[in-house]
Amino acid sequence: MQRIRHIHAITKRLIVMTTMAVAVLGAIFALTFFYNQRFLVTWAVPLCGIIGGFVSIQQRLNKVTDEELALLNASWFQILLVPIFGGVFALVLYLVFLSGIISGDLFPAFSFPTRDDIEEGEDFMLHIFRETYPSTGPDLAKLLFWSFVAGFSERFVPQLISTVTSSVPEASQKDHRDDTPER
Length: 183
Prior knowledge:
Elements: H1 2-34, H2 41-60, H3 66-74, H4 76-99, E1 110-111, H5 124-131, E2 133-134, H6 137-152, H7 156-166, H8 170-179
Antiparallel strand pairs: 1-2
Helix pairs in contact: 1-2, 1-3, 2-4, 2-6, 3-4, 4-6
């Protein structure tokens, strides 16, 4: 009976926090639409990761031990930890996509501004951060989907990082170590 009470209490917290995250995402969509601006991807990506983290916790509740349920029920921090990691992992995945480290039909493509697109005196890097967007509607959908996955599957991005770093040629790693000053 105590287990059921813990699950209900945690589920209520998850519903409240997920609703807040969805409301923030909806508000961002509305504000950018109202002010006739482009969608702010840098806000949507971590929010989709956070929502994925909340859904992941809810999916796992029935499988955790009674002690873990009691800990989750006693602490908001424990409930928020997985979604916060989800948001961070979604941002890291976004950077992986932007860099082109992974690409293909399953992953989003982006439109980047060029130096010719900026006015005299404008900061190029700031322009890059403000004006880089998914190329098409399907690319935006792919980005949001993968951001959700990054939050939902907490091992996805760390495994991706391990795969990418292990595929770096040994000579490249050695050259980098040779450039590092000794301490």
